[in-house]
Amino acid sequence: MTNNDAYQPKPSHKFSFGLWTLGNRGRDPFGDFVRPVISPVEIANMLGEVGAWGVNLHDNDLVPIDATPAERDAIVREFKKACAENKLVVPMATVSLFFHPIFRDGAFTANDAEVRAYALQKTMRAMDLGAELGAKIFVLWGGREGVETDACRRADDAVKRLREAVNYLCEYNLDQKYGFKFALEAKPNEPRADIYMATTGHYLGFIPTLDHPEMVGVNPEVAHEQMAGLNFMHGVAQAWEAGKLFHIDLNDQMPGRYDQDLRFGSANFKSAFWLVKFLEDVNYEGPRHFDAHAYRTEDFCGVKDFARGCMRTYLILKEKAAGWNADKEIRAILQEISAGSNSPPIGRYSKKGAAALLAHVFNKDAICKKRLPYERLDQLTVDLLAGLR
Ligand code: GCO
Ligand code: MN
Ligand code: MN
Description:
Elements: E1 15-18, H1 19-22, H2 40-50, E2 54-58, H3 59-62, H4 69-85, E3 92-94, H5 113-132, E4 137-141, E5 146-147, H6 155-176, E6 181-185, E7 194-195, H7 200-206, E8 216-218, H8 222-227, H9 232-241, E9 249-250, H10 269-281, E10 288-290, H11 300-326, H12 328-337, H13 351-359, H14 364-369, H15 374-385
Parallel strand pairs: 1-2, 1-10, 2-3, 3-4, 4-6, 6-8, 9-10
Antiparallel strand pairs: 5-7
Helix pairs in contact: 2-4, 5-6, 9-10, 10-11
């Protein structure tokens, strides 16, 4: 790939990766690490090399959990320097509330009040860190907020505890004048057997019950909704329409599997296309964050191939989306299926309008005879994706 490659990432594309994604060492429940540690500074260099715009992190991706304040400051200083050298921004920060064994029963929803308090303290410190690095988005993913057995607590108590925690963090955000937007990330299971707030839709229902709903949105992840068997783009569209698409985690996933975190677009190419088309059509301006990792078979160079592949596929699909919107035959069909009809105007309810609607006689036979050439439309899409148009 050369620099004048049409699919060369640019800062304006807002591609970001987490330290934990390129730094993933390939350990799984059945096998040990296959790649050596890549330090945060090395990851920043790698991201600079492949042309990414941003780098995101959990508190402990950068600062070890038991670091002294002096150690922390030195690490942060060195990392900031590496980001500056590689022209990387830190758009999003998050907190690990799942790795340390203290969170074995959850964090904000744990039964032990001391664990809940520790989770808040840890999150406030992660917000301090994120703010220091310039982040404006703070992701909360409750990976351990769930159960193996529902004997352990009432599920509505978990919802109440989660609400209390998010409310508390919003106040801290205001107090410190950090200006964070919180993005809540749903997942149906893994690492817990069942996780509360299983889908983006659950969170969209939860957010209006908070003290500061305007400060809180969602961070939908492709793989997580697909694990639940859902149409990811539909969830994203609903979040967008509600003004709540604060961040997005792009990756891929085969249905019915464990959480695979595959390279973006590598498993469900067509769904990835509809997603990119949606984000581009609505002019989503947030980061395009890849929360995925390289196959366990890869070495250091393979990790770069993985990162380049995520961005390249996004840009290919973006180009295809523009082609789809400009395609004459596709446009003609779209026009045909949305063409005006003999429908009485509906608009907002009024007594007069309702009376007119009740009096209207519909010609069901004529309506049923209208052509809906979705087969042709979909095949045109397939042809286009296959490079035949
Ligand atoms: C996962 C999650 C995480 C979160 C990350 C941000 O399934 O492991 O997607 O990668 O996105 O922890 O909080
Ligand atoms: Mn995930
Ligand atoms: Mn994620």
